[in-house]
Amino acid sequence: MARIQLYDTTLRDGAQGEGVNFSLQDKLLIARKLDELGFDYIEGGYPLSNPKDEEFFQRAAEMEWKHAKITAFGMTRRKGIAAKDDIGMQALIGSQAPVITIVGKTWDLHVTEVLRVSLEENLAMISDSIAFAKSEGRELIYDAEHCFDGWRANPEYAVQTWKAAADAGADMICMCDTNGGTLPEQIIEAVTALRNAVQCRVGIHCHNDCELAVANSLAAVKAGAIQVQGTINGIGERCGNVDLISVAANLSLKLGYDVLAPGKIQRLTELSRYVYEIANMNFRSGQAFVGTSAFAHKGGMHVHAVNRIARSYEHIQPDEVGNERRILVSELSGRSNIVAKTTKFNISENAELMQKILIAVQDLENEGYQYEAAEASFDLLVMKQAGTYVPAFQLDHYRVNVENQAREPMTEAVIKLTTGDSCQHVVGEGDGPVNALDSALRKALTPAYPGLSEMTLVDYKVRVINSTEGTAARVRVVIESRDKDGMWSTVGVSENIIEASWIALVDAFEFKLHRDRSAAKANGVT
């Protein structure tokens, strides 16, 4: 089985994406994870651009790497300067990286109008820079920038740049679709032309401006490229780079190539979410292979078929990439959805109860509830319909008061409730109504349920449902909570945003307590 190299540039090209900013520690953690999974090259950055990248290479040189080769990125020498005297070239050599990637111009437009040098000088800049890096004993990858635009504009000159790189000793020429505007058939044509022009290994680096980066990368491999450059989750400038998650999955599972370390394709979902978390970015639910919706089924007919034969509506098994199947419930659901979602409750044989749950879901969604992103609330709904729900407390009342004192609003929540034989009447303060209610509810319940101390609220979303009603519109609140064992989401709906928040908040607490009771029971604790 032939191997296709994966060259990751998340730490450099990915960091150029809007809203992406990695600390030094972030970069080291991601690099370690990539190495663990068997990526072939990890581009750490441009050592001359900033102190953080410079320190990254210093730290990387002191670390042991299982498989990956740490790579430093930089440009060709400047015009009129010997490569050995160029500050950028010196920084690349000083990085101690075993692999150096040098980017140079293929498109004559960039040569004459951006660099403002002669076509001959550009060829010399490519040749001199590569020869110098090779003389220092480094593996050399030449990134042919704007490769496909240059090939279309002036194919004769594009070939000259490729030959200059190959003749100077480049170990690989990576063809970069820098503007992301090339089509797959054009990729194949240009890759074929490069392979016919020079005796050099070929790589591909595609941007996603036409939503074709994955297709273009696979087309290049079909035409003979043996390396794909890209980023995790496709992050990067403008519309991003090719997503190496999708590339790895397609190459391995669809085309049979050897990528990553043995058995690591099953960790692609983990890797994707790891990078999202470190970058402090939201997951893309519809992301191919690894998104939370990638194997989510909502239509009743689909779920019915999936329950019988999974591959009837799934192109691969979710666990092949470390993902999982999800069955969604909504007003579009059929009985199959409810049966699939309630398997853990062992009630699927009760047809009357299944229908009762389905009707309840449809009625509540008609009011504005939505359980696709609030599975904890759905579980509580099932228990209520089945008669197995045991509330942790009985509410007498709550009251929220907001006062503006010295231009700083102060929010208090008063809650009176009963837990067992104990009545709690407490006051909580917070930055706003929801925070104050959360504070008061914790104060009232934690003495009886100490496990609540490890629960935190991590997200709060509000959406107006019937906007034509103006300020009297109904709102839907979704709250995400977390403890040491995972995350869960709950939902509340009301014309009053505080009441909607309260409903979602109570579900969050009730679900946490239900899980704790179930765990204790499983461990024989009563």
Could you explain the architecture of this structure?
With 526 residues, the chain is an alpha/beta fold. 40% of the residues lie in helices and 21% in strands. The protein is built from 17 helices and 16 strands. The strands form 4 sheets. An 8-stranded parallel beta barrel has the order 1-2-3-4-5-6-7-8, surrounded by 10 helices. Strands 11-12-13 form a 3-stranded antiparallel beta sheet, covered by helices on one side. Helix 5 packs parallel to helix 7 (155-167) and helix 8 (184-197) runs parallel beside helix 9. The mean pLDDT is 90.
Mean pLDDT, nearest integer? 90
| Number of H/I helices | 17
Apparent shape: elongated
Specify the structural class: alpha/beta
What is the alpha-carbon Rg in Å? 29 Å
Physical arrangement of strands within the biggest beta sheet: 1-2-3-4-5-6-7-8
| Poorly predicted tracts of residues | none
Beta-strand residue percentage: 15-25%
Strand count, sense and barrel status of the largest sheet are:
8 strands, parallel, barrel
Question: What is the helical fraction, as a range of percent?
Answer: 25-40%
User: What is the rounded distance between the termini?
Assistant: 55 Å
What's the number of extended β-strand segments? Answer: 16
